[in-house]
Known about the structure:
Low-confidence stretches of chain A: none
Mean pLDDT of chain A: 94
Radius of gyration of chain B: 14 Å
Helix content of chain A: under 10%
Helix content of chain B: under 10%
Order of helices and strands of chain A: EEEEEEEEEEE
Oligomer: heterodimer
Largest interface: A-B, 21 and 24 residues
Structural class of chain B: mainly beta
Strand content of chain B: over 45%
Number of helices of chain A: 0
Structural class of chain A: mainly beta
Largest sheet of chain B: 7 strands, mixed
Number of strands of chain A: 11
Number of strands of chain B: 11
Order of helices and strands of chain B: EEEEEEEEEEE
Strand content of chain A: over 45%
Shape of chain A: globular
Distance between the termini of chain B: 36 Å
Low-confidence stretches of chain B: none
Amino acid sequence: GIQVEQSPPDLILQEGANSTLRCNFSDSVNNLQWFHQNPWGQLINLFYIPSGTKQNGRLSATTVATERYSLLYISSSQTTDSGVYFCAVDRGGDDKIIFGKGTRLHILP
Amino acid sequence: NAGVTQTPKFRVLKTGQSMTLLCAQDMNHEYMYWYRQDPGMGLRLIHYSVGEGTTAKGEVPDGYNVSRLKKQNFLLGLESAAPSQTSVYFCASSYEPDRGSHEQYFGPGTRLTVT
């Protein structure tokens, strides 16, 4: 099956800093999503981005499907950005969705 | 829209007891999923369904059964709970054929402890 690797596994930043999270996948995919799991455990959709670039406020994401990676950019970090960021992929149709192990982000005030 | 809801939110079971977790979605999604999340393991797919009346095994199906008798509901059953099934369980749904979207939406989770 598809392997999904996220890096870095852990990231500690000062409030106001920018960060880039990476998701590599081992095979072609039709669907890719980024999620944020907040400290209360809630999973929040950030981007549905099988290819291309999307932006939503301070967050943006780029997926280069041909090179099998996706990047999540967080600018001007706030303490509320803390939590775990997951990337999830699948090949479409009835294929299973596979999650990476996540990047744990901690923003210091 | 309520989105994806799960009941119960918390449960404590003794080893050998059985229970059913209920997931409901009101987005007319075709696909539904059950995941478990353990510390340091990310999310692992237990079972999923691509339509009413269908189910399929995910990555970690042993010890669980599922049913999808109605499109909006997906049930996860534990017939004989074991301490290894202590986890947080998430339900999700996806796939709107009209929009061609596979965007996945998650419920709030169920925290299960088996003693």
